[in-house]
Amino acid sequence: MDKNVCAYYRTSSNTNVGNDKDSKKRQQHSVRTYAQSKGLNVVNEFYDKGVSGTLDVLNRPS
Questions:
Q1: Total of domains in the chain
Q2: pLDDT tier at 3, thresholds 50, 70, 90
Q3: pLDDT tens sequence across 19-46
Q4: What's the pTM value of the predicted model, to 2 decimals?
Q5: Do the beta carbons of residue 1 and residue 33 sit within 8 Å?
Q6: How many CA atoms lie within 13 Å of 18's alpha carbon, on the beta-carbon side?
Q7: Is residue 57 situated within a structural domain?
Q8: How far is CA 12 from the centre of its chain?
Q9: Does 26 reside within a domain?
Q10: 9 domain residue, yes or no
Q11: Which range, of 5-9, 12-16, 43-47, averages the lowest pLDDT?
Q12: Could you say which of 25, 31, 46, 61 is the most buried, measured as most Cβ atoms within 10 Å of its Cβ?
């Protein structure tokens, strides 16, 4: 049975954000490949652009 899941992507530097960059694309490919192999259905995706991983989750922009 498939389970519905959400995916989360993050790019820490604004220099890696944009249609001409591949950071998000690589992350999406990895997540989607993994999800498919485990019978997971990605129903929503979230992307934090230019947000450092050192910033506490509760203090990140919404």
A1: 1
A2: very high
A3: 766 778 889 999 999 999 999 999 999 9
A4: 0.73
A5: no
A6: 6
A7: no
A8: 12
A9: yes
A10: yes
A11: 12-16
A12: 31
All residues at 6 or more sequence positions from 20 whose CB lies less than 8 Å from its CB, including other chains: none
Chain-wide mean pLDDT for the chain?
A: 84
| 3-class state of residue 16 by DSSP | helix
How high is the pLDDT of residue 24?
86
| Within-domain flag for 21 | yes
Token pair, residue 41, equals 């259905």
CA gap 21, 24 in Å, rounded:
8
More confident residue, 60 or 30: 30
d(CA 58, CA 5): 21
Task: Give φ, ψ of 28 to 5 degrees.
Answer: -60, -45
Phi and psi at 42, nearest 5°, equal: -75, 110
Domain residue limits at 34: 3-51
